[in-house]
Amino acid sequence: MVSKSDQLLIVVSILEGRHFPKRPKHMLIVEAKFDGEQLATDPVDHTDQPEFATELAWEIDRKALHQHRLQRTPIKLQCFALDPSTSARETIGYVVLDLRTAQETKQAPKWYQLLSNKYTKFKSEIQISIALETDTKAPVDSFKAKGAPPRDGKVPASLSGLDPKDIVAVLNEEGGYHQIGPAGYCTDFFIMSVTIAFATQLEQLIPCTMKLPERQPEFFFYYSLLGNDVTNEPFSDLINPNFEPERASVRIRSSIEILRVYLTLHSKLQIHLCCGDQSLGSTEIPLTGLLKKGSTEINHRPVTVEGAFTLDPPNRAKQKLAPIPAELAPTVGVSVALQREGMDAQSLIELKTQNEHEPHHSKKRVLTPIKENTHTGPQSPSESPVPPHNQSPPTKDDATESEVESLLYDKDTKLNPKAISSSVPALLAKPVTTSIASETASGQKIAVPATSHHFCFSIDLRSIHDLEVGFPINCILRYSYPFFGSAAPIMTNPPVEVRKNMEVFLPQSYCAFDFATLPHQLQDTFLRIPLLVELWHKDKMSKDLLLGIARIQLSNILSSEKTRFLGSNGEQCWRQTFSESVPIVATQGSNNRIVDLSYTVTLEDYGLVKMREIFVSDSSQGLSAVQQKPSSVPPAPCPSEIQTEPRETLEYKAALELEMWKEMQEDIFENQLNDAENKYKTLEKEFHQFKDQQSSKPEIRLQSEINLLTLEKVELERKLESATKSKLHYKQQWGRALKELARLKQREQESQMARLKKQQEELEQMRLRYLAAEEKDTVKTERQELLDIRNELNRLRQQEQKQYPDSREIASGKMDGPHGSALEEGLDDYLTRLIEERDTLMRTGVYNHEDRIISELDRQIREVLAKNNASN
């Protein structure tokens, strides 16, 4: 059920605009869309500074708001220009608002520039503010299925007049508390606190396909406590999460009966592991156990719900994660406490790291140490000094339950000895009668030597070479070995391309593992379980394909030569190194070799784990604290201790019983280990038989051949695509060449035509010159003929004058007259003009002597010559 304080309004205020063009015939309107719901402003005049002055609001609750923030749901505002005459509108631009910027405090409005602005010459902007406001409207009494309370949330008879829907948490800011229920029923004050103490195996929530930020990512836990968003301090290491336990508390005014109904209605507290805005996993803490029906425990002591809760990945990632064993499941240690206000504050373990806390409030759990500085996680006061009976080397999982037990209340054990017996071995839970003064004294230390060794195993996948397949592969290598403490896969990155007759060195291929285990178990594991290195082919055009697997026998390093070296603190350590090349064979089919892998492994033994000391408390709590200190430091003597015989002290008796219990647990563990090993060997033998049978089936061989043919097909498709692109490229080049050739041909033809025309003109000019020269010769010849004729006429005239002198004198007398002289001159001029016209026509080259006009001119010339001769 959502309380009134959880109902919010997302308010978007659209105030005004600027840098708009003036369009008198248009109106401006802004539409806002969020989560499928669309709101709009009233139309305003399309001026250079439109005044919108409109608020748009969406109803939402805090849980939905958080989901939208995680999903980065945007609020999109679109601006339109509306034509009132035709009702047509055109998009001007849009603005996208980030929901994460909305706060419950009032913020100053900002100017947002329109994206994809139609008015390219104007940088149009809109002034907008976004805020969160509490929805104060009265709830509508309408039936909603989601509002129905669960069946077990019935109101008791004493509250028969109270509706369960009215039992909500309302913040009273003046009083500094949350009120649950009507004021008349709320008579008591309570403190509710949530503590996140530790987390383990968080790396299992990260699938191989998930992309984290390139820079160092930060992780944190998030939950909502009575409508208040709470996060712890971020941390960056998922494998070894190192964060200080933090407690968040809220003050509540209510009554026990109303609180019981409220916790029934809100029965689960959801806690998320987040990276940025992305939820990697979540778990739910049941709250109904805080106030059980008929229980009055809260009147005497705080009530708690605590434990190690499994984190489940979100739905979108579940399908991408492989099944995880229960012992490797990601967990988070949470404690939820509820107490009456005014009770002794020292009854709670103060898990927040503050300087004023006493030492017993900040006890640390020591995992099986790898290095001297590994005492960073919370330690249960009751943790056993020997490995648990279900595993040989202690791991992070071994301490999960004890970490949660560390959230028990120190003072509570005086009133609840039953709680003590559930968190410590029975032999340590005996009632002890001591004075109050001895309660603060230092406990007796019992040194128990650890049998585990601190090992560091490193592997370097150096290179791959001698590729056998006929096509290049774009590969990465991947492996995992849960014995080293993590089931998360280790991969080389980025992918490298390998071709025939070449050796490729792998990037980011070195990895080192620090762990603690027994030497004989290390040898047994290395002999039984090889390291399987997978060869994956990554292709952009298809999904990743597993090509083959290399089997690395880690037991080879155990027989290599040991070299001595000094550790960081001067202790003597041993190192073994082994290198070789192993083939990577096809996963299915006839186990054909694909490529060879060269690797180097190194095993470093730092010796025994540091001495572990157990403090047995002298107080009536019966709780012990495990801390890592040098075994040579003697216990600080307490002046208040009573001098008794050493064998009669409680410390000695507890140590003796502890040793006996340790031997018994070791025997039980060895028997269980032998049974498990025998069962595992039988299963391993059956598995090898099954694998041999499967590998001999023709379907497996065909599947391997199909995989290889698929790779060849992909390669051929890539070559075909490349050839098609080359063909298109060459076709374009050929087309351009043909166009260039046609252009050159046309240019050459035009040049040839120009030269031919020029030659024809020159030839025509030469012909005209030749015709003119020939006409000139003809005219010259005719003039010579005319001259000869004239000379002949003169000669004949002289002869005639000699023969007829008297007649000439008479004729001369007649001709001497003015008329005879004028007639002779007119004939000469006419003759000259006829000859010039004929010569002019002949020089043009158009006429010849056979033309009619030339013949006519020749005839007239002869007639004039005849008349001239006759007159002489």
From TrEMBL:
Keywords, sorted A to Z: Coiled coil, Cytoplasm, Cytoskeleton, Repeat
GO biological process: interkinetic nuclear migration; positive regulation of centriole elongation; regulation of protein localization
Main location as per UniProt: cytoplasm
Keyword Cytoplasm assigned: yes
Any one GO cellular component localisation term in the record: centrosome
Domain of life: Eukaryota
Region spans: Disordered: 352-410, 798-822
Compartments where found: Cytoplasm, Cytoskeleton, Microtubule organizing center, Centrosome
Gene3D superfamilies: C2 domain (2.60.40.150)
Domain C2 stretches: 1-112, 437-567
Regions of compositional bias (Basic and acidic residues) in chain numbering: 798-811
Family: Belongs to the CEP120 family.
Identification of the protein by name: Centrosomal protein of 120 kDa
Gene responsible for this protein: CEP120
